[in-house]
């Protein structure tokens, strides 16, 4: 069975929470937003060097971001 890979444009400062559950660099609202966006996905991996974008998939704002890849839970 082949799984599909999904990509998200993710702010760099969210990565410590996503990979290590470190809450020092994010607010409660940001944690809720991360959980909402990534609900139903697993096996995260960050690709690329950080880059600036005017819109990301988490808060729709400009920020330094990376491409976050994930698999959809079945």
Radius of gyration: 12 Å
- Main-sheet strand order equals 1-3-2
Instruction: Catalogue the unreliable spans.
Output: none
Shape: globular
Number of contiguous helices: 2
Helical content class: 10-25%
Structural class: alpha+beta
Order of helices and strands: EHHEE
> What is the multimeric organization of the chains shown?
single chain
Number of strands: 3
Number of domains: 1
Structural account:
The protein is of the alpha+beta class and 74 residues long. The protein has one domain. It is 23% helix and 41% strand. It is built from two helices and three strands; from the N terminus they run E-H-H-E-E. It has helices spanning 15-20, 28-38, and strands at residues 5-11, 41-53, 63-72. Strands 1-3-2 form a three-stranded antiparallel sheet. The radius of gyration is 12 Å and the shape is globular. The model has no long low-confidence stretch (mean pLDDT 93).
Structure summarized in a few sentences:
The protein is an alpha+beta fold and about 70 residues long. The protein has 2 helices and 3 strands.
List the helices and strands and how they pair.
Blueprint: E1 5-11, H1 15-20, H2 28-38, E2 41-53, E3 63-72
Antiparallel strand pairs: 1-3, 2-3
């Amino acid at each position: 069975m082949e799984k599909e890979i999904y990509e998200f444009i993710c702010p760099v400062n969210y990565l410590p929470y996503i990979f290590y559950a470190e809450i020092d660099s994010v607010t409660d609202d940001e944690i809720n937003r991360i959980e909402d966006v990534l609900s139903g996905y697993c096996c995260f991996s960050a690709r690329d060097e950080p880059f600036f974008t005017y819109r990301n998939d988490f808060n729709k704002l400009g920020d330094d971001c990376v491409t976050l890849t994930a698999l959809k839970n079945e």
